[in-house]
């Protein structure tokens, strides 16, 4: 009587095992597809890591500028949407008094949103100079503002550039992309600033950073304490921090707020 009972249990168990095996086989194509996707992501991440590991500091510095030398669509410069420069200029006006003798330098003018805001308010200035890495953008900006003799644009790099001393230097959505941070840019800017000149820029707030998956887009965010530490002992004073809400992300539609930084050249 015992043997048949054991046999039926074994037979039933084998049937369950066969069903499980068939279910596993049915799921196998989707599981393989998921593994291929994960392996593709891993291979891409490994390639980026390998390239960064084997690169020198100079290589990384050059790579961080690759994207911005190209002819990016306007919306690619500002989170997938076109913004105005009004919110940024509101804070600039709280830190600097414009006059008919004001000489302005802008780093990374993009599609001219800060300049548009300045002109729409009829704020007085003597001349404006915008420097950008992209020759294509510079050519479009020259055509756009050709009617105003006070305005000029040149292709140049903020870390290598110098010009006649200015009263105000501005930059938005640019300093977060400088590798490895913005200190070299500030040291270079100092050569083009009058004593007491004001610098206003913004950066992503947070901490850390690195290259994105494309291997060429570098981004870094800064905490407020880190900003204060970076400026400690520098030739800049009257440090002021605030927040500027530019507009909305073109994909998530969430507001994009950045850390606004203002300072003055001391000597």
Outline the structure in words.
The chain has 267 residues and is an alpha/beta fold. It folds into two domains: 1-54; 67-265, 3-Layer(aba) Sandwich (Rossmann fold), CATH 3.40.50.150. It has seven helices and nine strands, in the order H-H-H-E-H-E-H-E-E-H-E-E-E-H-E-E. It has helices at 2-54, 57-69, 86-95, 113-120, 135-144, 183-190, 224-231; strands spanning 103-107, 127-132, 151-155, 166-171, 193-205, 208-211, 218-222, 236-248, 255-265. Strands 1, 2, 3, 4, 5, 6, 7, 8 and 9 form a nine-stranded mixed β-sheet that branches. Helix 5 links the parallel strand 2 and strand 3. The chain is elongated. 27% of the residues are buried.
The major pleated sheet works out as: 9 strands, mixed
Apparent shape: elongated
Strand content: 25-35%
Total DSSP helices: 7
Rounded to the nearest angstrom, the radius of gyration is 27 Å
Helix amount = 40-55%
CATH topology of the largest domain: Rossmann fold
Examine the secondary-structure arrangement and name the CATH architecture of the largest domain: 3-Layer(aba) Sandwich
**Overall pLDDT confidence:** 89
CATH-assigned homologous superfamily of the largest domain: Vaccinia Virus protein VP39
**Cα distance, first to last residue?**
104 Å
> Tally of extended strands?
9
What is the structural class?
alpha/beta
For this structure, the quaternary state is: single chain
Supply the number of structural domains: 2
């Amino acid at each position: 009587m015992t043997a048949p009972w054991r046999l039926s249990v074994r037979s039933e168990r084998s049937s369950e095992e066969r069903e499980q095996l068939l279910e596993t086989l049915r799921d196998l194509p989707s599981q393989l597809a998921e593994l291929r996707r994960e392996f593709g992501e891993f291979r891409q991440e490994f390639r980026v890591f390998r390239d960064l590991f084997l690169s020198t500091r100079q290589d990384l510095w050059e790579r961080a500028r690759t994207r911005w030398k190209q002819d990016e669509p306007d919306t690619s410069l500002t989170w997938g949407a076109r913004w105005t420069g009004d919110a940024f200029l509101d804070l600039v006006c709280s830190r600097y008094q414009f006059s008919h003798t004001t000489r302005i330098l802008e780093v990374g003018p993009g599609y001219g949103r800060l300049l548009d805001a300045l002109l729409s308010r009829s704020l007085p200035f003597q001349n404006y100079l915008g420097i950008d890495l992209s020759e294509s953008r510079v050519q479009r900006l020259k055509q756009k503002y050709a009617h105003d003799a006070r305005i000029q644009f040149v292709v140049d790099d903020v870390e290598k550039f110098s010009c006649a001393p200015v009263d105000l230097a501005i930059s938005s959505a640019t300093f977060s992309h400088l590798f490895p941070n913005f200190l070299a840019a500030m040291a270079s800017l100092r050569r083009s600033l009058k004593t007491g000149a004001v610098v206003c820029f913004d950066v992503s707030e947070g901490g850390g950073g690195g290259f994105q998956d494309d291997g060429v887009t570098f981004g870094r965010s800064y905490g407020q304490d880190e900003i204060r530490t970076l400026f400690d002992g520098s030739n800049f004073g009257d440090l002021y921090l605030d927040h500027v809400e530019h507009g909305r992300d073109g994909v998530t539609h969430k507001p994009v707020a950045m850390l606004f930084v203002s300072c003055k050249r001391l000597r």
